[in-house]
Amino acid sequence: MLKYTTKRLLYSIIILFFVMFIIYTLMYSMPNNYIEQKARELASKPGAGKSYTEWLADLNAQYGMDKGLVAGYFTWIGSALRGEWGDSWVWTIPVTEEFHNTVWYSFALGLVSFILQIIIAIPLGIAAARKQYGFTDYFTSVVSMICISMPTFFLATVLKYIFAVKLGWLDISGMQSRDYMYLSDFGKFLDVAEHFIMPAITLTVISIGSLMRFTRTNMLEVLNSDYIRTARAKGVPEKQVINRHAFRNTFIPLVTTLGGSLPGLFSGALITETLFSIRGIGYASYESMVQGDIPFIMFYLAFISILTLLGNLITDLLYAAVDPRVRLS
């Protein structure tokens, strides 16, 4: 297992090196308008101390834009490995500080959605497989197709109309109420949690459809196996057949799928956070992309790349952990 883990980790590091090079190439190929605009902004501030030309040269040197593609990449990757990502042009603070200020909101939102997704989708998928071609199966299939097909912005608009406009139970967007500063610590927590209800529902609804169908498909495959028919022929109770034999083997692909999605809890939900004005990492990245915040964009793309590779690594390791045939091969 140690040899397998080391091998997969080395592969991930090599892939990350080339992915980071692609990220830098994309940024290097962008028009210089963003850098020139930032240089003009810095030069026009009171007490700037430098001219536009000097600021432009400093910004280009900071990210290796003046050294050519390959040499510039090694300059940038060297700074990144030292944790020097620069200051965000939009948020006017270090990129890592803005990341720390926003990522935990995204993590909290993603974690709640992840837990609800497991609680809802897996039992419904198993129930649909047990009652194949019955009412439960058809109902689950319809619900899952609706969830998969429903656009995020449409669902968010419907939730806002019902809970904010018609019922007036929740605020239409944002993370805090007007009297937030006058609340106790526990009251502040409840206030923020209240603003996360609609975003959490949105993320859960658009996510449960695919997991529901995945669970149903794998459960059907296991229930049609020879050893399941043998267990039933021997008179094993149906509940024991499902819980002890069928679900244990269905759990293998589910573990790898859910394990691979764990790093995604930190990546943020760009569309959902933007629609509800939740200042998570997804919302911050969207604002940075719109306004040409090159330092934050480069950091966010590198962060997403690391999460993707980490998700694949976790998937491989979990599959090897639950299936001995992978380790032996």
Residue share in β-strands: under 5%
Sketch the major β-sheet.
none
Q: Report the principal-axis shape.
A: globular
Radius of gyration: 25 Å
Order of helix and strand elements from N to C terminus:
HHHHHHHHHHHHHHH
Q: Strand pairing plus helix content: what structural class? A: mainly alpha
Mean pLDDT over all positions: 83
Low-confidence stretches: none
How many alpha or pi helices?
A: 15
Please bin the fraction of helical residues: over 70%
Distance between the termini: 11 Å
Count all strands and give the number: 0
Topology:
Blueprint: H1 2-29, H2 33-44, H3 52-62, H4 69-81, H5 95-130, H6 135-149, H7 152-166, H8 185-195, H9 197-223, H10 226-233, H11 238-261, H12 270-276, H13 281-290, H14 294-322, H15 324-328
Membrane topology: Multi-pass membrane protein
Domain ABC transmembrane type-1: 103-319
InterPro entries: BPD_transp_1_N, MetI-like, MetI-like_sf
Describe what this molecule looks like in 3D.
The protein has 329 residues and is mainly α. Helix content is 76%, strand content 0%. It is built from 15 helices and no strands. It has helices at residues 2-29, 33-44, 52-62, 69-81, 95-130, 135-149, 152-166, 185-195, 197-223, 226-233, 238-261, 270-276, 281-290, 294-322, 324-328. The longest helix is centred in the middle third of the chain and has 36 residues, at 95-130. It starts with a helix and ends with a helix. The model has no long low-confidence stretch (mean pLDDT 83). This is ABC transporter permease. It is found in: Cell membrane.
